[in-house]
Amino acid sequence: MNVVFCDIDGTFQDIGGAVPQINYDAIYALQKQGDHFVFISGRGYAQLTELMDELDSECDVIFSNGGGYKLVGEPVQYNHCLSMDECRRVITILEEREIFYHIHTNEGIILKAVENYESNILALREKLEPMGETGKQIMDFKEAFFKEQCQHVVNPLAYLAEHPELKVMKIELMEASDHEHEKLRDLLSSEATEVFSSFIQCLEIVDPKSSKGNAIQEFMKKFPDAKSYGIGDGENDLPMLDVVDIPVAVGNAKDIVKEKCQLIVADCLEGGVGQFIFEEIIK
């Protein structure tokens, strides 16, 4: 048996773009021959429903970089969340430094009104200008998402305190300055948090056990004799690539990811995931 773990943004799907049909076809072909395809993403589960609805058959999902999971036919499980004390520490630092951040909870994403971050968003747009139309599309998608699909609150920290039933899967920030990124890594890291970069100009703050690597090791206990593959593109995929039997990078992956991988396949936009599965795994 084979188990394929696949990142979503930048790997299975270009952010805001359509999924190449060959990727869907590869999932069905894997399942038909008795193998497993597992989405493993930094997104929260609420952000994955649209993609899941596009599938003709259900898949297992590991979300929030291992903070929770949803197995076929079973309820959603949340197992590695940030404590309120760590949320308070992290948010205080981000507020003091006027950083654009948002909070992923089990009921969706909360943040201040986007109008509070106009200068941050402008700086991010300028940072992505060398990417041309792609950079503009990324920021248009992000800005529209934050305005239209997230919950806006006046004081995120106070809101969390007022709603103890919420589970905080991660705190994510976007920052244009690479120098500030490095400062924030040092300031936000602690024994109770792990900080890593993801996609474009983002840092994510999670519980140290909220790791794609930990989640895969737990999942593979169900299939000890199976061969595992991991396909990714970003820094948050490195823990996954460390624990699978065959680590794979799409062509657009970061260099640090490619260095970890046995195989490098076609770009995300070209359906590299589906091409790889058909060429290497489908009997």
Automatic annotation (TrEMBL):
Domain of life: Bacteria
Ranges in a coiled coil: none
A GO MF label: magnesium ion binding
InterPro entries according to UniProt: HAD-like_sf, HAD-SF_hydro_IIB, HAD_sf
GO cellular component, as recorded: cytosol
Cited SUPFAM superfamilies: HAD-like (SSF56784)
Record's protein name: Cof-like hydrolase
Origin organism lineage: Bacteria, Bacillati, Bacillota, Bacilli, Lactobacillales
